[in-house]
Amino acid sequence: MELAEGGDLFDKIEADEGVGEDIAHFYFKQLLGAVAWCHGRGVAHRDIKPENMLLSESGDLKLADFGLATMFIHPATGERKLHGLVCGSPPYIAPEIVKVGEDNRKRRHGEDKVGYHADTADFWSCAIVLFVLLVGNTPWDIPDVDKSEEFYHFCETMGRPQDDLWTRIPSDTISLLRGMLRVEPSKRFTLEVVRNHPWFTRTNTHMNSEGKAADGVSLATNMIERLHIDFDAPEFQAPAATATVSQPQAPPPAWAAAFASTQPETPIADQAMDWEAPPRLAAHHNLSASQPTTADDRTRAAITHDAIASLLSQEPHMTQFSQSHAVPVTLTQQARAFKDILPQNSLARFYSAQPMPHVVAMLHSALHALNVPVSAAPAGVAAAEDQPRHAYIRVQIRDGRKQALSGNIVVESIGEGGLVEVRFTKAKGDPVEWRRLFKRVVLFCRDVVIRPNE
To answer: What is the pLDDT of residues 355-372, one digit of tens each?
Structure first.
């Protein structure tokens, strides 16, 4: 299969803030191009969401995971087909999918199943993705007036809710979103209408005449400089303050049982660990992702704290911990491609100079304060001195939109200089929600986080 060298798009999007209008426009146009290509061949994706959007090494979008894709045009007759499978992620699916699921569940014996147009439902999902690109959050949990207060108000106000998220949408984009999010599928904007909308046809300096990234370095720099963690934010004092952010895994609601998924609910303990090597530290100093086990390896990995601090200053993701959030000029001058600024590796990581047991204890305190259930003894903490020293904390919760979110927090010693790396490796769930969890844990652990000198 083709490799998406740029990693996950939404790992690089700031939770609750988005990427800015120009970059949102750039990736929305590329998403629509991918969807149009599929629809032109009679194929609907049916699972358009952040998890399924990857990047090339130049920063261009790649639509992935066609496990739920379907033919919506009969190949023999050319007629449009209806579909009854309830599938996708609830915050991103169209309301007719929810309604079809309920109607089919309640149908009497002998009655035919009802269906929906899969291609029209794809456009609704694309609009939700655009919303997330612009503001860093989804507008509702599920498009069902009986289960989502936000969606109820959206319908009651005819697409003009007054909550904070909608007031942050650029005025030129509102009409496009309202047209693509019309509850009645027959009245929803078609591909042709979307492509002729003034906001869609606006010029974009990030895009060349072929619809690809014009300057990968500039695109990546703009994206990474929007990532930031406000260390001046007040401490989270009580668990109640974040109870709606991350909730312990609970049995899914009745309507969720009908949803098909290309990522089954596999117990997290059975999943392979994602041992990511720190990209630049490993590349420049032959550091493995864990403690070296031979004398020669230990010699190569013996780096002073000053040398490590110097290397960290050249790590692009360290800008999210700085006050200016600006990428060092020396790094942008040396960069030749998108991947030189925004590597494939997850940006949800930080470094600490504190002893690893202390860092692990801080992480446990943070997770408990956020109502995230964790085991009493993380694996790996009690490893012998002559063995690789690492620990990992399993996370399995329901996020702020009541969707499954799981992964691991990997804590690992780097070399022999006393540096500890903490990596948040997502296994399943919304990347924006995963970053939101990462940011809140970092705020709790602010006293042990290494920040760039400014």
So the answer is: 999 999 999 999 999 999
Rg (CA), the chain: 23
In the chain, which residues fall in CATH 1.10.510.10? 7-214
The model carries a pTM of 0.83
SS3 (DSSP) at 340: helix
The model's confidence at residue 193, banded by pLDDT at 50, 70 and 90, is very high
**Has residue 297 got a pLDDT over 50?**
no
In 241-400, alpha helices (H) = 279-285, 295-301, 305-312, 329-334, 338-341, 356-369
3-state class (DSSP) for residue 254 = helix
Q: Which residues pair with 8 in a beta bridge?
A: 54
Residues of the chain with CATH 3.30.310.80: 247-448
The whole-angstrom separation of Cα 17 and Cα 137 is: 8
Burial category of 58 from C-beta neighbours within 10 Å (exposed 0-12, middle 13-18, buried 19 and up): middle
Q: What does the alpha-carbon distance between residue 454 and residue 437 come to, in Å, rounded to a whole number?
A: 26
- Homologous superfamily of domain range 7-214: Transferase(Phosphotransferase) domain 1 (1.10.510.10)
Q: Which residues are catalytic?
A: 47
Which residue type is seen at 84? Answer: G
Q: Quote the tokens at residue 88.
A: 């996708």
